[in-house]
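ok trying this again, last paste got cut off
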Amino acid sequence: MDIKTLQDTPPWDWPTDAGKVFHKILVDSRADESDRLAAADLAGDLVAMNDDLANDLLAIVRSPGEPEELRARAAISLGPVLEQADIDGFEDPDDLPPITEATFRNIQDTLRKLYSDDNIPKEVRRRILEASVRAPETWHQNAIRAAYSSGDRNWMLTAVFAMRWVRGFDDQILEALKSTDPEIHGEAVEAAGAWEVDAAWSHLVALVNDAGTAKPLLLAAIGAVGSIRPAQAREILSDFADSEDEEIAEAATEAIEIAEVISDEIDEDEEEDEWIN
C-alpha cells in the first residue's frame, strides 16, 4: 500500500509492513511534504509504532532543517507511545510496549532538552509539551504553570490540555472552565473528568442539560460526569444512552458502564474497611 491508501484504511487493517512505508517517507527529505506530514501522523498509531519509527520522528523533531509543521506533527505523534510505555512499563516480557525502554528514555530526555531551548519554534515546543506530558515527569509542573500564566492563548490551550495528564492543577482547571474560548473550555472539561474534580460537577451537569451545548463539548462533559460522581451517572446520562445520535449514545453508554464499575469498586472497598474495623 502507498501512503494515500493507508490514510484511507483503518489501522487494524494495515499490512504488517505499514511501518516500513512510513519509515521510507519520513527519512526521505526529498519526498512530497504532504506525504511526509501524513506519514508522521500515521506513524504515531500504536499498530505501526516501533523503535525505528520513534527514532525517525524524534530525528525530525530535533532537526532545525525540517519544516516547522512537520516537526510539530512528528512531536505530537510520539505522545501515544509515551503514554502506553508509561502505563505498561517494561517489567512484563509478555506485555511490552511497542518501543524499548532505552528508546522511551531517549525520547523523554530529548524532548525535555528541546523544550528548554527557546530558539525552537513555538508550535514545535507546544507539541513537545503536549506529547511529553503523556508520560509525566517532574519538570512538567513548572512548564505547565508557566504556559498557563503566559497570557498567550495558544500556550494556555496547551497548558490546559497538559493538565489532563499532570495532577495538581485543580484551581486552574476550574478557572479554565469559565473560559469563553471553546477549545480551552473543552480541554478544561476533559481535565476535570480526568482528575475527578468534584468542584466542577455543577458546571458539567449544566453543560449536559443544556440543549445548546456543542456536540464535542457534550461528549467530553458526558465522560466527565461519569467519572466524577459515578453513583449519579445513570440517572443523569440514561436519556443520552437512547439518543438517535450514535456518538452520543455510545459515549453515554460507555460512561455509565465505567461509572458502575467504579461504584462497585468503591462499595467493595467500603465493605472491606467495615470488615477490618
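PB: full thing came through this time. The chain has a mean pLDDT of 94.
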